[in-house]
Fold:
Amino acid sequence: MNSTPFWGPDFDELAAEDPEIASIVLSELDRLRSGIQLIASENFTSPAVLAALGSTLSNKYAEGYPGKRYYGGCAEVDRAEIIGIDRAKALFGAEHANLQPHSGASANIAAYGAFVKPGETVMAMSLPHGGHLTHGSKVNFSGKWFNIVSYGVREDTELIDYDNVRELAREHRPKMIITGATAYPRLIDFAAFREIADEVGAILMVDAAHFIGLVAGKAIPSPVPFADVVTFTTHKVLRGPRGGMILCREEHAAAIDKAVFPMMQGGPLMHAVAAKAVALKEAATPEYQAYASQVIVNAQALAAGLADEGMRPVSGGTDTHLALIDLQGIGLTGDVAEMRCDAARITLNKNSIPYDPQPPSKGSGIRVGTPAVTTQGMTEGDMATIASLISRAVRDEDGTQAAAIADDVSSLVTRHPAYPRG
Ligand code: DSN
Structure:
């Protein structure tokens, strides 16, 4: 370890120089500590990850890759990126890793850039059935620049319709097939997708943003052996800094690296790359594996608890870190439920459900996820408590119960603090 003292985040300096922003930083910390965070795509990073993010690595321009940069002075950041790449390859058993994408959307743009040209056909899961904007939404680059063929889930089972995926692939002969979702609670059959992709000669891209942390923790099967390319964010269950990453087969390594830089991005964010390396080290521990398994157990307990309260889990439950809850049975839309929960310090998001009669701005459902509450150390019993708190909050029509529910939220989070003091 170098003997130079760390020159890093000093909150007193921020408070003295910019009290307005300092007070927002503190208020946000207070919001995290005093409420229940159930956004399925959020988590609480470790102090070590935050220290790397708040370091002077943020200053360095390093366009290019380790050993082949367009700037001098990159020896130290090269070491960080090489360590991160090696950790990613070891953790996921991947042949190649690129840690530079700024976000999940940036990683996906790079994957499109590596494998398809504008106007070519790409198949992906539709957003209303749980996909993502970058999977072909008309308002996104993917829907504007590519010929998108969307697939979805069956109305009766609410599971991916693999027969339909195969039929669509045979009919449209896509250049690339994307699987992965933001609001699909079940495991995806990567072997089935591989078979379909091989049958029509398509590249198979897995957008693993939501569940890659469960893969890292060996709690669910990995897409890596089946996919040509796997894209993901690093800040969800994986508990790293906000950012993106790509894994691929060696045969695609040069195309992916060129698509990230210089095709889609300029200089990488080296503080984020270093923080990703820290998160990958943390994710390789037995403690993290226990965490990943508990995330799923908690999501299943939360889904069951909400079902007991009259709120139907889409597809009957979950195999992952999230549940999609249909509120039609209790006569509510997602936007109203989100607002009422917010008033009681329970943070979650409205969500469309498959075949939703409501517009996306309302949605018939809510999405709940357990990455953050599990980081706080909560277990199944706490999930039953949270289900009952959600039930009280969403039924609080006139807001008169919000303060009392928030008090009960406070008791729960006091027993399991996020970012504990001292
Ligand atoms: N916005 C993320 C989510 O909440 O699922 C996906 O990018």
